[in-house]
Specification:
binds NADP nicotinamide-adenine-dinucleotide phosphate; Rossmann fold; alpha/beta; seven-stranded parallel β-sheet
Length: 250
């Protein structure tokens, strides 16, 4: 895999899976724009880590659920590096609650950060990708969008939405040399899953045929492949990176 001369935006890449994706894409040669919403330090440190190994990187703080922030993220990328070739829609949050108790705010916030962001970022980059007749859009969905999970109606709806969105976009832009795929991670060891209660984690672990949690790097490897030239004939797909977990239900 060689992503030299490719420019990538990875949303939500100050930590967790996004950070691993940013570092992996840089390792195989891409220039990487690192983004998240919070304090500057995590994104700056990821960008510095990439530069320290000889790569090119830029940190941009932006809330990807907001149209103006997304426009600034993409414009900054294009004005700094001249183009955008790869978009990884990774930013995501959870606000878990059983349906009877789920508030309007919990529903709206999760749909906004996990799904609206994918629409906003994809719309903003596609214009540039169409012009150059090459692009890769890779969105991080979830096993929960495929099989559901109690307490996560908002998150499952957003992740299932990403899958429908991806299949549609793949058809819309195929003729322009752009592919769109989703990845459905299972149970990956990040701050998002570290917050789960220990006995729930143990129960989930028993449902993974491979018997252990995935690492952020496992997801990053799949992203790098889908972003590569070698994956040019793969589009509109959902790739599970889940130790066999979804297969047990589907
Ligand atoms: P994480 O450790 O909680 O990291 C989430 C990242 O998203 C952080 O960098 C966060 O920034 C950023 N973010 C949150 N809201 C944002 C916004 N509005 N705009 C820009 N960035 C924002 O999560 P993770 O476990 O790495 O998950 C990454 C993706 O994989 C998510 O889409 C998640 O749903 C998906 N996923 C995870 C798992 C898992 O087991 N971990 C499984 C399936 C799917 P701040 O640090 O500034 O808040």
């Amino acid at each position: 895999m060689d992503l030299s001369n490719r420019v990538a935006i990875v949303t939500g890449s100050g930590r967790g899976i996004g950070r691993a994706i940013a570092l992996k894409l840089a390792e195989v040669g891409a220039t990487v724009v690192v983004n998240d919403i919070g304090e500057a330090s995590p994104v700056d440190s990821v960008a510095e880590e990439i530069k320290a190994t000889g790569g090119q990187s830029l940190a941009v703080l932006a809330d990807v659920s907001k149209s103006q922030d997304v426009a600034r993220l993409v414009e900054t990328t294009v004005s700094t590096f001249g183009k955008v070739d790869i978009l990884v829609n990774n930013a995501g949050i959870t606000r878990d609650q059983l349906i009877m108790r789920m508030s309007d705010e919990e529903w709206d916030k999760v749909l906004s950060v996990n799904l609206r962001s994918v629409f906003l970022c994809t719309r903003a980059v596609v214009r540039h990708m169409i012009r150059q007749r090459w692009g890769r859009i890779i969105s991080i969905a979830s096993i929960v969008g495929l099989v559901g999970n109690p307490g996560q109606a908002n998150y499952a709806a957003a992740k299932a939405g990403i899958i429908g969105f991806t299949r549609t976009i793949a058809k819309e832009v195929a003729a322009r040399g752009i592919t769109a795929n989703a990845i459905a991670p299972g149970f990956i060891d990040t701050e998002m899953t570290q917050r789960l209660e220990e006995d729930w984690k143990q129960q989930l672990k028993k449902q993974i045929p491979l018997g252990y949690l995935g690492s952020p790097g496992d997801v990053a490897e799949a992203v790098a492949f889908l972003a590569s030239e070698e994956a040019r004939y793969i589009t509109g797909q959902v790739l599970s990176v889940d130790g066999g977990m979804a297969g047990a239900w589907l």
